[in-house]
Amino acid sequence: MTTAGINGIAGVDSLRSVLAALEKEGAAIGHFNVADVVLLKAVIAAATETKLPVLIGASEGEREFLGVRQLAALAKSVREETGWPVFLNADHTHSLQKALEAAKAGFHSVGVDFSALPIDQNVARTKETVQAIKAVNAAILAEGEVGDIGTGSEIHETAPSEVGKLTTPEEARQFVEATGVDILAPAVGNRHGMLKSMVQGETRKHLDIERIAQIKGVAGVFLTLHGGSGTEDDHFRKAIAAGVNIVHINTELRVAWRQSLAESLARDSNEVVPYKILRPVVESVKQVVSSRLRLFHGQLVSPEAVGSAA
User: Fold this and answer.
1) How far apart are CA 165 and CA 189, in angstroms?
2) C-alpha to C-alpha distances, 40 to 65, 72, 196, 198, nearest whole angstrom
3) Looking at the DSSP assignment, which residues form a beta bridge with residue 246?
4) In the chain, which end has fewer C-beta atoms inside a 10 angstrom radius, N or C?
């Protein structure tokens, strides 16, 4: 995003306005999951360093560990202190109760995910949840998911034997019209988690760019790309050009977190001061987030930075 563009949205509280502004510039917002304060500090540091807006995500499990209201309060304090566009998403929310909990806590968006259910049940429960969270705050953006992108931002030994069902443009159109979602998360070749070969940089995910463009053309809403970790950089660029507005990265952060923590602990086996052990972890995760943010905004990323995101 250009400096002029950032200056134009830095004080805007609306996630919708930020997404619309980025779309006009051919850019996407990076969505990074956090489960503790170390990850949160790293994501915020990357956003302020790159001077780019960011969407912080937390799944039900991550929210349970960190605390729904606690995470919302931390994110709010950052926005108030810096005036920076830091937004919060309740990622992969599987119940009406959890969606309402996040909405009442002050999350800017809620990812409503009933995609594992038959399509008619997915539509009915998504619509019910969208209406409920909008009643709490009409400005909240509601996301719905249709198609199969797998589960779990983890390291997998091998690819699934069966390829998940990809979203068709017609399914996308009908789903959006029936549920009233503001954001759609389709299955377009993306999958949660990474293969070991992706962590090692030997293989990459590839997306169905034409399908993304077709879905964007008929859905008429913002598009989210889940399971972005391990995707070919050029496919990210093409996906954003085709209409993707939000890109989710989680496993890459977890890999950087674990690897850097192990290295930090091994560096001095007698060190017991948490902030001394964790500072290198924050820096390592920050580098991954920074490189992805720049990529999603069309900025040049050095080979070293791209390598650190693997």
Assistant:
1) 9
2) 13, 11, 25, 24
3) 29, 224
4) C
Structure tokens at 95: 């119940």
Helix or strand or coil: residue 187? coil
* CA gap 9, 51 in Å, rounded: 11
Q: How far apart are CA 100 and CA 109, in angstroms?
A: 11
- Structure tokens belonging to residue 243: 């209409």
Distance CA(297)–CA(153), nearest Å, equals 24
**224 CA to centre of own chain:** 8
Contact yes or no for 221/173 (Cβ under 8 A): no
Phi then psi dihedrals of residue 78, to 5 deg: -65, -45
Per-position pLDDT tens, the chain of length 310 = 443 344 333 444 689 999 999 999 999 999 999 999 999 999 999 999 999 999 999 999 999 999 999 999 999 998 888 888 999 999 999 999 999 999 999 999 999 999 989 999 999 999 999 999 999 999 999 999 998 766 665 555 555 545 568 899 999 999 999 999 999 999 897 665 544 545 556 555 668 899 999 999 999 999 999 988 878 888 889 999 999 999 999 989 999 999 999 999 999 999 999 999 999 999 999 999 999 999 999 875 544 444 444 4
Give the CA radius of gyration of the chain.
18
Nearest to 290 by CA among 277, 278, 308, 276: 308
Closest by CA position to 236, among listed 212, 252, 220: 212
Kindly provide the b/e burial profile for residues 230-263, where b requires at least 16 CB atoms within 10 angstroms of the residue's own CB: bbeeebbbbbbebbbbbbbbbbbbbbbbeebbee
Q: Which two tokens stand for residue 24?
A: 């006009």
CA distances from 125 to 141, 176, 180 (A): 16, 13, 12
d(CA 285, CA 152): 19
